[in-house]
Amino acid sequence: MDLIKGSSPAIQHIKDMIRQVVDTDLNVLVCGESGTGKEVVARTLHALSSRKRRPFIKVNCAALPGELLESELFGHERGAFTGALTTKPGKFEVADTGTIFLDEIGDMPINLQAKLLQVLQDGGFSRVGGVQEISVNTWIIAATNHDLDSDVQKGTFREDLLYRIKLITIKIPPLRERREDIPALLAHFLNKYCGSLKRKDITIPDTLMKAFMAYDWPGNVRELENYARRLLVFGDPAAVEKELRERTTKNETPRFDIGSLLTETSDIQAILSRQLITEETEAFPSLKEIQKRCLAHIEKIVIEEVLRRTGGSRKETARVLQISYKALAYKIRDFGVNTSLLSAEGVSVALEEDR
Ligand SMILES: Nc1ncnc2c1ncn2[C@@H]1O[C@H](COP(=O)(O)OP(=O)(O)OP(=O)(O)O)[C@@H](O)[C@H]1O
Ligand SMILES: [Mg+2]
User: Fold this and answer.
1) What is the pLDDT of residue 251?
2) HSE on the CB side for 82, CA within 13 Å?
3) What does pTM read for this prediction?
4) Distance 36 CA to ligand 1 centre (A)
5) 6: Cβ below 6 Å to ligand 1?
6) Is the CB of 4 under 6 A from ligand 1?
7) 31 C-alpha to center of ligand 2: Å?
8) Does any ligand 1 atom lie closer than 6 A to the CB of residue 36?
9) Are 178 and 4 in contact (CB under 8 A)?
10) What distance in angstroms lies between residue 296's CA and the mean position of ligand 2's atoms?
C-alpha cells in the first residue's frame, strides 16, 4: 500500500477496495487516464496478496500485433508457425500461481478476446499449434484507459468479456479531480529522486505550489513526476511556475465545466428527494425552498472545486468567485463545504475572524 501516495477520498476508496479484493481471486479491472497510476495499483494488489512471492507478469496488449500477442500470452508448440523453432510457454503459464497484468486490454484484437474469455471461464487454453489443454491458476488484473462500454458499442470489444472482467473495477480519477493529492505526490517524488539526481534539497515556493494546484495535469501523476525530476535537475522553480501558468491559462476556459462537476456528483436528485420530501409543512415544498437548496448545492460543489485549484486558499477562492471573503466564509460554514480542503493559512485566518 506504501506505493500509493495521496490521501484524497478517491485514493482512500481505492485503498479500501484493494484491501477487500486481495486474495478473493476475482479478476480486477483498473481504469484511468494515462499516467494515473494503474500499474501502481496492479502491483500493489499483487504485493498484498498471498501470491506476492510468485511472479507478477506484465503483458502490454497494445505493443504486439495479434498473432505475436497470442503466442506471447498462450505460448506455442514447436513448428506452430514459421520461426517457432522450439516450444515456448506463454505468459499465462509463466504466471501460474502468480499474477498476470494485462495492460491496455482495450487494445487486444477481438479474435484473441475470445480465447481470453475461455481462460476466464474455465482457466484452460491450448498453446498456439497445440491440442493439449493447459490449466493455470493465474490471477488476472487488467488495465485500460479506454471507455470499454463505448468500445463494445463500436464493436471492438466483446460484451461478454467486458461483463467478465468489469465485475471488480477500480477507477482511478485523473489528478485534476483529486488535486489535494498533489502536495504529497510532489514531496514523494522530490524525495525519491533527490539522491540519484544529486540535488539534496529544493524549496518549493508558495507561488509554485499554487501553480501546481491550479494546473490541469493532462499527463496526470506521470507528468507531475517529470516536473519533480526537472526541478531537481535544473533547480528552476521560477521557470516551471511560468510554464505551468501559461499552460493553465491556455486551458482555463474549456476545462472549467460546471456541468461536468455536477454530473460527476449528480446528487441534485438525491438532495431533492431526500431533504425536501421530509419537509414537514406541506406535501409540496415551496419553489423558493427548492431554489435555495439547489443553489446551495451547486455553490458548494463549485466552491470546493475552486478551493482544490487554489490549494485551499479562501482569499484566492473569494477572488476567483468574485464574492467577498466574508460571504465565502459564511457559505463555507452554511453549505458544509469539506473543510479538509482549506489550507492551514485559510483555517487560521478563519479562526481569527470567528473570534
Ligand atoms: N498514487 C501514486 N503514488 C505514487 N506514485 C504514483 C501514484 N500514481 C502514479 N504514480 C507514479 O506515476 C507514474 C505513472 O504511473 P503508472 O505507470 O502506474 O500509470 P498508468 O496509469 O499505468 O499509466 P499509462 O496508462 O500511461 O500506462 C509511475 O512512475 C508511478 O510510480
Ligand atoms: Mg501503465
Assistant:
1) 60
2) 0
3) 0.75
4) 5
5) yes
6) yes
7) 10
8) yes
9) no
10) 39
Q: Which ligand is nearest to the CA of 102?
A: 2
- Domains with residue ranges and CATH for the chain: 9-173 (3.40.50.300), 175-251 (1.10.8.60), 256-355 (no CATH)
Query: Quick one: cell of 204?
Result: 518549493
Residue 274 backbone class (left: φ over 0; alpha: ψ -120 to 50; beta: rest): alpha
Cell (9 digits) for 267:
446528487
37 lines ligand 1 (CB under 6 A): yes
pLDDT tens digits, one per residue of 199-216: 767 889 999 999 999 999
Q: Is 90 exceeded by the pLDDT of residue 76?
A: yes
Q: Is the pLDDT of residue 354 over 50?
A: no
Q: Give the residue carrying C-alpha cell 485549484.
A: 309
Beta-ladder partners of 58: 101
| DSSP symbols for 150-216 | HHHHHTSS-HHHHHHH-SEEEEPPPGGG-GGGHHHHHHHHHHHHHTTTS-------HHHHHHHHHS-
> Which residues surround the ion ligand 2 when the cut-off is CB under 5 Å?
39
